[in-house]
Amino acid sequence: MRCSEKRSRSWRWWLRLTGLCLCTCSLLSACAGHGTPPAETSRQTVSVQPSAAALPSWNDGAARIAILRFIAGVTREGSSTYVPPSERIAVFDNDGTLWSEQPMPFQLSFMIEKLKAVAPQHPEWKNTPAYQALLANDTAGIAKNRKAFLQMVAVANSGMTTDEYDAEIHSWLAGAKHPSLGRPYTQLVYQPQLELLDLLRASGFQIWIVSGGTAEFMRVWAMDAYGIPPDHVVGTQEKLSYQVRDGKPVLIRQPGFDFNDDGPGKPVGIFRAIGRRPILAFGNSDGDREMLEYTAAGSGARLALLVHHDDAQREFAYDRQSSLARLDKAWDEALARGWIVVSMKQDWKTIFPAAKAGATQ
């Protein structure tokens, strides 16, 4: 691999975060009108065949049929495609697969808010081109000064204990709303995917999030959002250090990353955390391509799926030309290998759960 390609891949996660289309508005979702599903740790070991009423928010097209047939085949004892519960592992990307990711990934929105909050403590930032571009919503200026901008973001989101950071994430989630959809971020998960998670859970699957976002960020809300406990979240690993503060042992956030869980890093993260090759993988962009390849390459029944964001009226439309979460090479590979491409416009009857009382539509 050429050095330039290595550098490109090493920056891919941050490029997805910046998307070269930053704005000061936030975007985040954690859970919506879904309740709290059963914890992933209380796995069923019985075979549960999908009913005709399964996945009610999915249109009865090729994608829904393929999913139901797959689940029926791997859970029917005596079937040639039967898979024991211990090997029924499903992995899902998070941003753009389980919830929205526009106009920027949710974690970056939060991290930018942190940057603005701590900026008074860093007067040296005031006259830097990167900070001035951020305040002016100058996306071209941010892109031009990307390295300095990312350094500021890293500093702003480090130095506190993990418990303090968790509390700040919870606080941000409690009051933030999407700038154009007008709903709390906690109501922007995908209803069809919540139904799929429930069906897989009832069918004895172990469900994992495998995302380019950081595990430390996602673990705060994954249980409330999806019923997926913290130990089933695989993500980019931020640097941490052990210290004793005021006589109490704590973990302190440090600038930088120990592991990048995006692109080719996803199969590595899966192997390290799970130790088994999944039999189902669901993504939405080129950053998920290697995860789907790794899953589909195993023996026996396999299912690889991609969400295609083609519904600008109900959500957002983007794919091959997007600077954020581009779906290009993975789409071509899906067509060549028979992976399932789920059209938001054609396959999903609804996108988000019903709005809670008092929420703006």
Automatic annotation (TrEMBL):
Q: Any idea which UniProt keywords this protein has?
A: Hydrolase, Signal
The superkingdom listed in its UniProt entry is Bacteria
The family database entries (InterPro entries) matched by this protein are listed as: HAD-like_sf, HAD_sf
Signal peptide bounds: 1-32
The molecular function GO annotations come to: hydrolase activity
This chain belongs to which protein, by name?
A: Haloacid dehalogenase-like hydrolase
What is the organism of origin for this protein?
Paraburkholderia dipogonis
